Amino acid sequence: MEVDRENISKVILMGAPGSGKSTFCDDVMRTARRPWVRICQDTIGNGKSGTKSQCLKSAAEALKDGKSVFIDRCNLDREQRAEFVKLGVHQVDVHAVVLDLPARLCISRSVKRTGHEGNLQGGKAAAVVNRMLQKKELPKLTEGFSRITFCQNEIDVQGAVSTYSALDPLDTLPSGCFGQKKQDAKIQLGIMKFLKKVEVPDTVGSNGNSFQDSVSKHETKEKNFSFKGPENVTLLVGNAGNKVTEGRDFPKGSSAGALSLCDVPTLAFPSISTADFQFNHEKASNVIVEKVEEFLSNAGNIRLVLVDLTHGSKILSLVRAKAAQKNIDSNKFFTFVGDITQLYTKGGLRCNVIANAANWRLKPGGGGVNAAIFSAAGPSLEIATKEQAGSLSPGNAVVVPLPSTSPLYKSEGVTHVIHVLGPNMNPQRPNCLENDYSKGCKVLREAYSSLFEGFASIMKTQTTVLEANCQKSGSRSSELHKDLFGKSPTNHFPNSDQKIKRDSSYETKGNKKCKGLPDELGSDIADAMVKKTHPKNEKIDCGTSKAWGSWAQALYHIAMHPEEHKNDVIEIADDVVVLNDLYPKAQNHLLVLARMEGIDHLADVRREHLELLRTMHAVGLKKAEKFLSDDKSLIFRLGYHSAPSMRQLHLHVISQDFNSKHLKNKKHWNSFNTDFFRDSVDVMEEVDKYGKAILNNDDSLLSMELRCHRCRSAHPNIPRLKSHISNCRAPFPATLLQNCRLLLAA
Ligand code: AMP
């Protein structure tokens, strides 16, 4: 609905020093479409630190002046922000943006900065941030906010930046809370890990009660984001952040901005035929809304985004209005103003599939979207397109997987382009329908049907991976039980009635291997181990659905009788045993074995084992930290194989160099670098939440193409992959950088 008055927002930022509040404001204001004023206590006194009342006064003046304001101070407790909430004229939207980033990150940024005017840096900063965070009170709508956006990682922050920079003076944002996720133990581990390494002077905190104020005075601009966002795009992870609700027609109170929580497969598409092909906009918008509605009625957890480059685009406003009339879920379909080739890097909106309004020859050139997509994707798109089709007739679409070398793939995370050809009403272009709109609408409908079917086909083939990623993000658990197209999920949770696919096939192959013990167990040591463990080499039924071959019992035996393996084990405790992996797949590769009977593998783990999982994690963490203190260049991951080859629950603590002669084949690589590998932090969270861990034990994961775990480039064989990873310094994918999945030196 159009509104006839300009809206003013009062956005109260909240976050510890180092959380990036000032950067947030700068980023929004750089491209903002409405006038904003930033009220910052650090600079309020003629460029120097000032007082809270100065901030209140300036904010009130700006609001009176019709400007929207950002209150850029810590505001971590209710009392600190109360006066700012109350402040100002009526009819101001009062919002909170909570930069609730991991303490470790805020501390690390604050500690690293130098020349801070309030001297909030070094070990002192660590202590201050830590103490402030202990007093943190997350805001509630009842405090007087109409909208609260929680950002817990940089992707969320980017989403919020996009949301606010896209607001024009007439826009309002939906009310409600957006983006809130459960705080979990991982963050605490992060703090502990960091504080151990940071010198905390005794003197800090002597100013006791006035901590909040004194610290907020010391806030400064943070420019040292370490997050590399776009380059880290993980395939099929569509974590859009709070999407830009371009449409001012989003119904108030809708959850239009809530998608930051989930990684939703997303198709971005331009309006087909309405630009160069001069199709009537009213009629085209009817077709779009009709087709979107039809498609969404059968689809599950996916999103469609209609994109246009220009603000005030007629087709976007028509579609928004009609979609709103039809009550189409604005979480699943919305409009977006931006360049379809830069939706993520410029707009913070992740789309794994984009549509191209193509020409019949499927060639680059022309103008508009077609030229932009071919040019952004580079020559590899033309080659890949040729492999799929030589030409296209109106009403049809062709799906083209984007080569991983394409810049569009690397920087935007786009995995597929779908070329679509719509009906043409432009006499200057081929196949003009000469205003025959009954045929035109029919062809346009066909074009959108083909486009959406193409998207559905991509999603169907990738359902398993998508679900795994979505589950990994730990969000919207109820939706995780549906697959993308409304079917029951497969392979999510261990189920005693359900045959675990990889278990059986892997077992067979494992046993084959075991006969000659060619690979991992090909040594005399392994032979000896097998004999020692089970002299008769018989198969053991462990009481679960899986039967373990004798060769697979070595770890179990070590866990139960560590004293008999004194030369092999590194540490023996009541609950766990630590040992070097006999066939390490990286420079540093340890196993932490559970000593409890009856938990052969992750599938056996239940809520009552949570403490044990935590112990295993803590022990693994300690070991990794020891390695890290010796070699700061190392990076570690801790996790479990969804379907392990060896009996007895064991946690892999593995450095990410994968520099080992024992890493020989696709299975080895993929078992550590696909969703088959379950990060320990996620496993603990799932067991806590659902009572069991999610298992991604589909065989196809182990036979996936070989992709670099950092830049995601594909490689034809292990030697080539190894040579690539020895040099690749690309940032890790965003999903790995989140939630302490990767362990780095502080
Ligand atoms: P998984 O596939 O998770 O069961 O991994 C089992 C791990 O155990 C592999 O990384 C093997 O290299 C390792 N391994 C196999 N036998 C032994 C052994 N006797 N001692 C230590 N590690 C072993």
Automatic annotation (TrEMBL):
Residues 498-510 have a biased composition (Basic and acidic residues). This is Transcription factor bHLH140. GO terms for molecular function: adenylylsulfatase activity; DNA 5'-adenosine monophosphate hydrolase activity; double-stranded RNA binding; mismatched DNA binding; single-strand break-containing DNA binding; single-stranded DNA binding; zinc ion binding. Residues 488-497 have a biased composition (Polar residues). Pfam families: AAA_33 (PF13671), DcpS_C (PF11969), Macro (PF01661), zf-C2HE (PF16278). It comes from the Eukaryota. One of its GO terms (cellular component) is nucleus. It comes from Tetracentron sinense. One of its GO terms (biological process) is single strand break repair. Residues 320-493 form the Macro domain.
